[in-house]
Input
Amino acid sequence: MVFGRPTPGNELWAGAACCKMKHMKGSLNPKRTIAELKELRSLTADENGAHRVAFTSTWANARKWLRSKLEQLPGIEIHNDAAGNLWATLRGESEKALLIGGHIDSVPNGGWLDGCLDTMAGVEILRRIQAQFTGRPPVTVRVVDWADEEGARFGKSLFGSSACSGKIDMDETRGLKDKEGIGLVDAIKEYGIDFEKVKDSGKELANAAAYLELHIEQGPVLLDLDLPLGTVLGTFGVERHAITFRGQAAHSGSTPMNRRRDAFLAAAKMSPEIYRIAERSDGGVCTIGSCATKPGIVTSVIEECRIALDQRHLDAKVLARMLQEAKEASECFAKEGNVSVRWKRLWEIEPILFNKDLIKFCDEAISETGAKSHRLPSGPLHDAAEVARAGVPTVMMFVQSLHGISHNKIEDTKEEHLEMAVTALDKLADKAMSWICGNETYPRRQRMGAGTNS
Ligand SMILES: [Zn+2]
Output
């Protein structure tokens, strides 16, 4: 690792009157972040992994622990917003705010880094900035711990951040229940949250000028490239469809092969085809994740076959083309087999692209930490996607995941890489602060505005 390389000159910084931070020394201690993550693990995990499921007592304890860390910092204001998101604010010369976010909640039997690495790196950077500017940085700096990113209890992820972005589906969410039949509305009431008011959380973004989030990659891309860190370009758009082929049931023994109308045969031909579609798409992914047949007995040709197809890409146009190609292929295979085909959309979300300037700063921060930057999309959604949808300039940084695995107790990252991640995020925070200063007239994109990131 090469630390302390001089920061390259940047024309964006030149006009920034308030940017005196460039030459000051910080007191960042990435080792402390790792020690704190271990402390959190010892408080909230057992031999099966982490158990910080949102809106449970273990999560509440984790939150209490987080608060106790923040309370040790002089001059930090801490409050929970209308959706249960925890905000720690260090007021600066400017009201414009740099936000650093994460989520301390986990899935059951979860790993020790997913979400809480982001939050605790934010806490460490807040400490550094607080110390460096003796409590008064040029811009306001805020760490947010989102409520219920995972959706492990009620099956709805990004609860707190989607309430904050205003994109939460109130009708759908109002009816959610956990395995015991307890409603989300009642469960969150115990934590002081009035469901009907969760969107009031949106006012927290009023002065948000940039949002940063560090996360473990949860996949094998950086591992395969042998790179510790990556810059995330955005989150994939998703098209998810049920495709039903219909033929005719007929006796397995008496029906000659050339007389069959086999719904499964047509569906099966889709399997290699989606690999070709993904390959042509340059970076997209396709999955047939389920297959159900009727009548589903070995003595009958299959009358009906329903498959579920999930397609993802970072480019909306390419995603639309992937969908069109899959539709055309299904019609072609249906015709070949003398069966019919019907499509039904199950779910969709547009690709969410991160901010170009912040992407560039993220690359720079990674190289100044002594690593080679690699740009990659995020397959999973993250709270950052909701913040970006709300119109706040956003970027994410990924750190390599060992085994390329997450949502599992074996989730891990080399400590050396974790330290580099905290250091690189800190450098990115500095660049973002300078950028905010230099952009005093930067037109804040319309909050809740449609299309700014789509
Ligand atoms: Zn996460």
User: Anything to note?
Assistant: The chain has 13 helices and 15 strands. The first strand starts at residue 45 and ends at 46. The longest helix spans residues 415-438. Residues 237-348 form a domain with the Alpha-Beta Plaits fold (CATH 3.30.70.360).
